Amino acid sequence: MTDRLPGFSTLAVHAGAQPDPTTGARVTPIYQTTSFVFNDADHAASLFGLQAFGNIYTRIGNPTTAVLEERIAALEGGTAALAVASGHAAQVVVLQQLLMPGDEFIAARKLYGGSINQFTHAFKSFGWNVAWADPDDIGSFERAVTPRTKAIFIESIANPAGSITDIEPIAEVARKAGVPLIVDNTLATPYLIRPIDHGADIVVHSLTKFLGGHGNSLGGIIVDGGTFDWSKDNKYPMLSEPRPEYHGIRIQETFGNFAFAIACRVLGLRDLGPALSPFNAFMILTGIETLPLRMQKHCENAKAVAEFLAGHSAVASVNYAGLASDKYNKLARKYAPKGAGAVFTFSLRGGYDAGVNLVSNLKLFSHLANVGDTRSLVIHPASTTHSQLDDAAKVRSGAAPDVVRLSIGIEDKEDLIADLEQALSA
Amino acid sequence: MNHDAYDDNYIRSILSSVKSIAMIGASPVNVRPSYFAFKYLAQRGYDMIPVNPGHVGKSLLGKPFVASLADIGRPVDMIDIFRNSSHIMPVVDDALTLSPPPKVIWMQLGARDDAAAEKAEAAGLKVVMNRCPKIEYGRLSSEISWMGVNSRTLSSKRAPIPTQGMRLSLNRMSVGGGATAASDRAAKNKSEPT
C-alpha cells in the first residue's frame, strides 16, 4: 500500500523532525554543541572519510540544523539542502562549487542590492566574473552565454519591486548552455513558488526573511534539485573529479542525485566556514511551522495595501504583481497563483523628498533594512540597500530615487492602511 | 514493474527481508562507493559477501573475497551489482543458475539493464535498478537526514539510536517514491538519447 502524500502544511510542521531518540522530546532540541564524540577510532575515520552518516563538528553539520535542511529540501521538492550562516554565505558556497578563477556566471539585473554588490565587487577578487542580463528580456541571457559560463542566477520574485521572473524560458537557456539555473527564492518561499518544478537546478534562500519570518535570526540555505548531471563533461571538477581532500572520492559518483548538496557541505562549508548557529536553526524551524498561514496573511495584506496606494493621489505608481493592472500580473498568475508576495515598491509624486518624509512620518511601519518580518517594514532603497549603485543602475534595478519599498507584515491591514494614510497626508 | 520510480514500500520490503547480500565488484579500496556501501550494510547487520575475482585470497572487513557467485557455497538472499550496465546480464545469468536462486537482484546507482531485469523478474526475482542500498537504507530509516538529505519520509515515533550491527526502523510514513519528482524527470531525460 502506498502512503498518501502529505501536503505542504504537513511538511512545514513535520518534515525532517522526529521525537528525540534519547529523551523523547517532541520539539527538535537545540543541540548547542561544537562537537560530537565518536563511537571508536573506526567510526571517526568513517565519518571523516564520508563513509558513514553522522555528526563530527557543527561547522560541517549539526542535528538541529539537519532538521531545518531536510524540511526545506522537502518543501522545495529538492533532494537535499545545506544551511549556512546567511543568504550571502549560501551564494558564496554555491558558486565556489561551480566556478574556477576566470569563469563567468550570468545574473539577472534585478536582484537584492547586496547580491549586486557581492557579485560585482567581492566575487571579482575570486576571479568570478558576472555578466548581467535583463530578466524581462530572455534573449539577453542567451546572448550572455560564453564558453566560460558556469551558471545562471535569478530571483523568483525580484527585489526590490516584487517583479515576477519568467523562470521557465530562462531554465531552457541554462539547459541549452549546459549550466545549472540557480534561483534565489527568498521573497516567494516555496509556499508561493517552487522553482525546481519550473526547471531550476539549485535554489538558495535567505532564511532571515519569510521562512524564519520573525526578524530574529539570520540564516541561509542551498537546496539541491537533484536535476543536474555534473559528470557529463569536465566542466564541474569539484563534483566530477577525484577530490584530493578526500583521498580521491568523486562526489557525484558517490552521492548520486544529492551530490551538489554534499559538495557544498564537505568542500564549501567545511573549508570556508560560514556555519549556521544551531540556535538560529531552531528559531527558523519554529518559524517555518507557520509559513503557510503567515504567507497567506502577508499576501492578503500586501494586496490590500497595494490597492489602497494605487488609489491615493500622492502616489505616482505602484509596482505590485498582485494588482490586475501590473506588468507582471500575468506571470504572477502563472508562477505564484496563491499570492504575489509581500514586498513591493511604489513611487511618490513628490519624488525623493516625499519618500524621505513618508519614511519619517510612519508610526507602525519600521524603517529598517530587512524584509519578510511579521512586522511591516519600510525603506528608501536609493539611500540605503541600493545606495552603492550609480543612478542609472538604481533605475535599472528598480530602486529609482522616488521609490519606496514596503515589506507588508501580518498586522491588521486596516491599521497598516491608516498608518500610510496619515503619513502620506502629514 | 516500473523501474523509473520505485514505491518506498517495495524498497522497504526488500531491505527488511533480506539477510545476506553478495556484492559483485566489491572493492577493497576505501574511497570507492562499493567499499562505502559494503561497510555500511555490514554495520547495519547484513551478512555481506564480497565477490571479486581480482581479490581472492584477501578479505574485506574480515569477510573473505570469493571469485564468483558459484563459489559462495550457501544460499544468498540478494545480489548487489557494482558493475557498469554492460556487465549486468552475465551476473543475472549466473544468479539464475544458483540453487536456491537469490530473491533480489539489485543494480547500483548508474547501472540499469532492462533486459536483464525482465529475465530475473520472469524467474520470480525482485529487481531494483539505479539505486544504492546504503542510500535507500539511510533514507528509509532517516539516518541520512543527518546529511541534510530529503528522506521523503515522516514519523511521529521516537527515533532509535543507531548502533553497530543494529537494524534501524524502516517503518516510516513515505512522502514519495525515493527520488523527488524533479530528480526522477532529470534521470529519465538523461537515459534517453539526446
Automatic annotation (TrEMBL), chain A:
Annotated PROSITE patterns: CYS_MET_METAB_PP (PS00868)
Cofactor: pyridoxal 5'-phosphate
Keywords: Pyridoxal phosphate, Transferase
Pfam families named in the record: Cys_Met_Meta_PP (PF01053)
Residues covered by region (Disordered): 1-25
Enzyme class: transferase
CDD domains per the UniProt record, alphabetical: CGS_like (cd00614)
Gene Ontology CC terms, in alphabetical order: cytoplasm
Leader peptide range in chain numbering: none
A GO biological-process term: cysteine biosynthetic process from serine
GO molecular-function term, one example from the UniProt record: cysteine synthase activity
Taxonomic superkingdom: Bacteria
Modification type N6-(pyridoxal phosphate)lysine: residues: K209
EC number per UniProt: 2.5.1.49
Family to which the UniProt record says this protein belongs: Belongs to the trans-sulfuration enzymes family.
PANTHER family tied to this protein: HOMOCYSTEINE/CYSTEINE SYNTHASE, HOMOCYSTEINE_CYSTEINE SYNTHASE
This protein's name: O-acetylhomoserine aminocarboxypropyltransferase
Automatic annotation (TrEMBL), chain B:
Domain CoA-binding per the UniProt entry, residue ranges: 15-111
PANTHER family: COA-BINDING DOMAIN-CONTAINING PROTEIN, CYTOPLASMIC PROTEIN-RELATED
Annotated segments matching region Disordered: 173-194
A Pfam family that the UniProt record links to this protein: CoA_binding_2
Protein name from the UniProt record: CoA-binding protein
InterPro entries: CoA-bd (IPR003781), NAD(P)-bd_dom_sf (IPR036291)
Matches recorded under Gene3D superfamilies: NAD(P)-binding Rossmann-like Domain (3.40.50.720)
Extent of Basic and acidic residues compositional bias: 185-194
